[in-house]
Amino acid sequence: MNAYAHLVGRILIALIFVVAGAGKIADQTGTVAFMESAGVPGILLWPTIALELLGGIALIVGLQTRIVAWLLALFCILAAVLFHLDFNNAQQTTMLLKDLAIAGGLLILASSSVLYLALDNRQR
Fold first, then answer.
1. Burial (0-12, 13-18, 19+ Cβ within 10 Å), 92
2. What's the pLDDT at 123?
């Protein structure tokens, strides 16, 4: 049962990144405008898309899981600080907490001693 819960957990965490990365591809102009409104250079669009899409897929299949989980956790914390620090806006506060919660789940995953149903476990 733990193996399936672990896999489903990885998939559920990864979905937000895969969907967000695909959304950024679909609306590159809007995404760059949003990034630049927060002082983030638009040149970071494609590295962001790559991290979200490839990182999400890597989590799903369990490839370099611990490293990817660390990178995505740092990404979530950075996104929370850069985009969601308006405590006067309830929606932004919720987004901040969501990003921090996802980062927390990713840090737990990064520190897991056992990875179930993951390519990381394949025989070398």
1. middle
2. 63
pLDDT surpassing 90 at residue 124: no
Q: Which residues contact 82 (CB under 8 A, 6 or more apart)?
A: 38, 39, 40
Report the chain's C-alpha Rg in angstroms: 15
Q: Got the DSSP string for 75-123?
A: HHHHHHHHH---TT-HHHHHHHHHHHHHHHHHHHHHT-S---S-GGGS-
- The set of residues, in sequence order, having a beta carbon less than 8 Å from that of 118 and lying 6+ positions away, is 6, 7, 10, 61, 62, 63, 65
Under a CB-based contact definition with an 8 Å cutoff, are residues 119 and 63 in contact? Answer: yes
pTM summary value: 0.94
Sequence-separated (6 or more) residues with CB below 8 Å from residue 67: 110
The 3-state DSSP class for residue 63 equals coil
> What are the boundaries of each domain within the chain?
2-114
